[in-house]
Amino acid sequence: MNSHRIYTLVYIFTTFPPEVSGSAHFNWERVQWFAKQGMYRIIVLAPDCQNQSSLPSVPADLQDSLIIETYPSKPWLLYKLLHVPKFSAADQIRERLAHYKPDLITVVDIERLFWFSTWHLPGISYARKHNIPYITEYHTDYYGHVSTYPAGKLAREIFLKPLNRYLYRQCDLAIAVSAASSVGLQQIGISDFHTISMYGIDVYAYSPERRNRKCLEPWLTQREQEHKVLIFLGRLAFEKRLDILIEAFAKLKRTQDKCSLLIVGDGPVDVVQKFKHLAESIPDIHFTGFLDGEIKANVMASCDVYCSPSPYETFGRSVVEAMASGIPVLTVNSGGVCDYIIDGVNGYLVAPNDVEEFANGIQKVLSNNNTGIIQQALLDANQCSTDRGCEKLNNYYQHLLK
C-alpha cells in the first residue's frame, strides 16, 4: 500500500457506545486501532441515542484521524434499550458520505438498519454511484435469537430468513466475524462471504491481579462472604437463556449451600422482571445492573466461576474477559465459544439448553482443581485480543483498497 495515501473508511454502526454490548465495545476499540495506523481517516456514523454527551471521547492524538458523528435514532421496537436509525437518518447519512468521500463503506448489523427503521440500506446508492465497496459484517445471530421468543421459529422461516438473505445479497461483500457467524450466514442461505476472526477484547484491561473480594461487598451479605461466587455478565435477554442458569443454580443450592450468583447486566424492564421473578425464591442470587470499566474487571476477577448458558454467541466477549481474569469458564458447546474453548483444557463445555447438565457442570468446576485450566485460559485469551483481530481485518482492507 502507498504509505503516503490516506484512505477514508466510513463505518455505519447501529452498535456503538453508549450502548452496552460486546459488539458496541468492539466497534469502539477497533475504530481507535485503525485510526492509530497512520494510513486511514476513520469516520463513524452512529445512533445519537438522544444523548450526544454519552458518546465516547476521542483521544487527543486521534482528533484528526477519528471523527464520530451521529444520525437521528429511536429505540428499536424489538428491544427498547437498543437504537436504530429514524427514517430521516438515511438522507443525513447520504449527505455525510458525499462530504467525506470514502474509499470504503462498512455497515454493521444491517438487520437493525433495515427493520422498523429506514427500510433500506443507507449509503448503498452512494457506493454504487461512486463504485466503492459496500461491506457488511455478520455480528449477531438474529436467526437463533428469534427462536427463543413466542412463535419465533415460525417467524424466522417465513419472514426473517428470506429478508436477511435479500439484505446480505445487496451488499458487495459480507464478512463473518467468526466461524460461528459463518454458520449463521449459511443458515439464511448466504454462501458467498469471507470469514475473518476479527472479534477480540482489550486483554490488558483484565487480570487475575485485580482479584479482591471487597469488590463484591456491595452485593454479598455478611453470611455470603466465604461463599463460592458464580457470575454471569451480559445483556439480560431471553436468548441468553438465563432461565437455564437460574434453574441450575437452584439445583446446586440443594447440595452445596455455600455458593452465590451475581447476574451482571441489564435489559428491557419486562425481561429483567421475568428473570427476577424466576429467581426470587432462590437464595443468594443478586442482580447488579450494568457494570463497566475497572469496576467490571475487578468484579470479574474476584468471582470464582464464570457461567454462560447462552447458545447463540457469535464470539462471547465476556467469556474471553473471564479467561483473561483468571477464573474458570463454564459455557455451552454452541456458537462462537467453540472456536477457542476446549473442554477440560482451558474451560468447560456442556450441552446447550439442559438444566441438569449445566448444574452438573457447575458442580464439576467447583470440585475440580482448576489451576491448569486457568493457566491455559490466560494464554489462550491473548490470542483473542483486539489487536490481533484488527490486524486480520486490516490485511483484508489493504487487499480491497489496492
Rough outline = globular
Whole-angstrom Rg:
21 Å
**How many strands, which pairing sense, and closed or not: the largest β-sheet?**
7 strands, parallel
Structural class, from secondary structure content?
alpha/beta
CATH architecture heading of the largest domain? 3-Layer(aba) Sandwich
Provide the β-strand percentage band: 15-25%
How many separate helices? 14
Report how far the terminal alpha carbons are from each other.
7 Å
**Named CATH topology of the largest domain:** Rossmann fold
Mean pLDDT: 91
Record the strand order, biggest sheet.
3-2-1-6-7-8-9
Strand tally: 15
What does this structure look like?
The protein has 402 residues and is an alpha/beta fold. The chain has 2 domains: 7-200 and 385-401, Rossmann fold (3-Layer(aba) Sandwich), CATH 3.40.50.2000; 204-384, Rossmann fold (3-Layer(aba) Sandwich). 40% of the residues lie in helices and 19% in strands. It has 14 helices and 15 strands. A 7-stranded parallel beta sheet has the order 3-2-1-6-7-8-9, with helices on both faces. A 6-stranded parallel beta sheet has the order 12-11-10-13-14-15, sandwiched between helices. A two-stranded antiparallel sheet has the order 4-5. Strand 11, helix 9 and strand 12 form a beta-alpha-beta unit. Helix 1 crosses helix 14 (386-401) and helix 8 packs across helix 12 (355-367). The longest helix has 19 residues, at 152-170. It is globular and about 65 Å long. The termini are close together. The relative contact order is 0.11. The mean pLDDT is 91.
Set down the secondary structure blueprint:
Elements: E1 7-12, H1 22-35, E2 40-47, E3 66-71, E4 73-76, E5 79-85, H2 89-100, E6 104-108, H3 110-118, H4 124-130, E7 134-138, H5 142-146, H6 152-170, E8 173-176, H7 179-187, E9 194-195, E10 228-233, H8 242-255, E11 259-264, H9 269-279, E12 285-289, H10 293-302, E13 305-308, H11 317-325, E14 329-332, E15 348-350, H12 355-367, H13 371-381, H14 386-401
Parallel strand pairs: 1-2, 1-6, 2-3, 6-7, 7-8, 8-9, 10-11, 10-13, 11-12, 13-14, 14-15
Antiparallel strand pairs: 4-5
Helix pairs in contact: 1-14, 8-12, 11-13
